[in-house]
Amino acid sequence: MVKVTLKRVLSKKEVSSMVAGIIEVTGPPLSIYDADSSLLIGDGSDKSDRYSVKLAGEEIGWVTGNGNGSSVAALLTLLAGRELTEKSLANETLENYKEINLLYNVSEKMVGCLDSKEVTKLIIDEALGIIKGSCASALLLDEKTGRLDTVYATGKPRTMSPDAEAMKPGEGIAGNVFLTGQGEIINDVMSDPRFVKRANDIRSLICAPFKTKDKVLGVICISSTEPVTYTAHDLKLLSALALQGAIAIENARLYEELRETFLATVQTLAEAVEKRDPYTAGHTIRVMTYSLVVGDALRLSKKEMRDLELSAILHDIGKIGIRDIVLLKEGKLTDEEYKIMTTHSELGAEILRHIKQLNDMIPGVRGHHEKYNGSGYPDGLHGEDIPFIARIIAVADAFDAMTTDRPYRKGMNVKAAFAELKMCAGIQFDKDVVNAFMKVYDTPTYSALFNKQEGGLDVEEGTDSR
Amino acid sequence: MSKKVLIVDDEPHIRILLEQTIEEFADKGVEILTSGNGKEALEIIKIERPAIIYLDATLPGMNGYDVCNIVKNDLKLKNVYIVMLTARGQEFDKQRGVMAGADVYMTKPFNPDAIIEKTSEVLGIKL
Fold first, then answer.
1. Partners of A5 in the β-ladder
2. Across the interface, do A98 and B20 touch by the CB < 8 Å criterion?
3. 1.10.3720.10, 3.90.1170.50, 3.30.450.40, 3.40.190.150: which CATH number matches A115-249?
4. pLDDT tens digit string along A61-89?
5. Is B70 on the interface with A (CB under 8 A)?
6. Which residue of A86, A87, A94 is in closest CB contact with B112?
7. pLDDT digit string, tens, across residues A30-63
8. Is some CB atom of chain A closer than 8 A to the CB atom of B16?
9. ipTM given for this complex
10. Helices A302-314 and A283-297 sit at what angle, rounded to 10 degrees?
11. DSSP secondary structure of A109-127
């Protein structure tokens, strides 16, 4: 790669002035020629002996001149050698620079990346920037099926369906790398007995494992349809990338697991309340579903949707502190009983106070019985002062209460419930929330949800014998 | 348009590395000039009028910001494209570079591909 010409050596200020100095001291004639016989210095008039300037055994030019030709040629040989060393070292360092930049970029981008597919895509895109290849893929072990699934692939050729590329550990070269946890270079795949020929037509392959401290999660492969000589250096680099990737993938998985556990815990908490009051069975999930439908229509952010989801699940959690005699009473509550019942919003907020991760849900839980005109409880908040999550849950909660059967009354049908919501919009409910909910009712996306509900109610109405 | 590139860094190895990075441009008739200090660099800029300068921020004596400031305030020179080079992570330096009028700033260890791309863009030469 590195090439040094005599012309380049002489173009250096220090060198040209040194040669000029020598000619001045010893006197002409002296001529210097490049490898292609073009004259670089002098007038070419002297026809004396020719002295080679050599670099790594090859002549890169020559010098003529009886008096000083040989010493100038020796000097230039030395300088050209120096130049070559310098350039080679510089090239080596530049390669390292590229790698540092690559690894730096990858780790910078991977910070906060909590999706395994996203991680593999990032690594493959960066890797292909520095390692030659026509296609690349990342395979991760699916613990349920025990197969290696292609989670991300790029370049040509590739099979479009991930299923077609799912393979067992131990199968093919990638499957072997997965089992051994050792990266491999196969510069001629045809001569490797493990190679499983698929739709694609590759010639060379480099493969590294996504390895964590105690297990292999999957592999990353870069392959080429042209024969390529991958080097140990390429493998080292790919392995370094895969190592970073494995950490990020594991992180993403742990995060997902944590989130699921958290969600399940919250749901269990909510279910504890439902179990005490069979008439509210399913209420929590329905309120959550309606709330999310509205949140989606209002284009809430991801974080707001998450908070809304958890707040909706937890909105009645305070009922855990309401005595059975009040909570399970059939028929109208007395004023005193009603007063006890209303404490559930505050109780709920009180319970959540102890869990840091649930503190963001307090406003939605505490405020879900507030009314737009300020006549609600517990704080009598007005309009926009009511936390917006609470305003959404209030609508969803009321809608579900209206459309569900209670021991003392039948549930309304969906149409009637919507009419009721509309009537109370701006008084009890936030107009915008009600409007968003009504709009959703008209769209095909969610009509399935309500049709099912309405259908169920209709049947019940028809067969009701009470 | 000038086909000259000036590299200014007090560390000889950085000069060599930058030179080597853009070496392929030399085959396309681009002249690569180097300097190890701000004062000399300014003289070279005035005489040679390079199209693009890779300028280290921290130079002994007159530093890179000063050089940049002078060049960008000189009507005859202000079109010279200046790439300021600073150590990675020094956000404060980046701010100073922008204030001094640098066209772009890059961190060291520099990304060779970014240097090639920028040189190619400014000189209008494809490799």
1. none
2. no
3. 3.30.450.40
4. 888 886 778 888 888 999 999 999 999 99
5. no
6. A94
7. 888 888 888 888 777 777 788 889 888 888 888 8
8. yes
9. 0.81
10. 160
11. HHTT---HHHHHHHHHHHH
